[in-house]
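S1.2 Input.
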Amino acid sequence: MDLKKTVYFLRGARGLCGERGMSNISDLIEQFILSAMSGSGETILKRNDLANRFDCASSQINYVLNTRFTVDKGYSIESRRGGGGYIRLFRMEGGEEYFKTILNGIKGGSLSYNKCTHIMQRLIIDGLMTERERELLAAALSDKSLSVACDKEKLRRSIMTEVIIGLWKDTERED
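S1.3 Output.
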């Protein structure tokens, strides 16, 4: 079954499987974008072309971009609206700009445990954190360990900020 027929089948089956069909479309869109990025780690897309390819609303494309290609997952998106508009999506690589982007993403306000896990997973993928370090940090940032704190998410943000800065300093020493 080709991709277009698969998408049509999933959209048609939505009434039978509820939101499951929509999540499958999201998975297909995500996989398509990831394959377009393979090699260079970057791609330029047109939202309407992508929506037409998958026979879905452009809001579905926005949903995939906003939930699956976030800064805490190591992606950056540039967007230009209008007729000649495009979406430039690229995977951030380690280095000063990478750390600054992560720090900007977590500064101010609070930081959820879920967002922390995304950042830690990305650090593992980039070879900046080991699985053991992730397990230890995840335990330290968990709601259970922060149960005595008045504002868990602000404390979590502060801890995660210091970890990112420490990792950044380590990479500078290695260079």
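S1.4 Remarks. The two ends are 49 Å apart (CA to CA).
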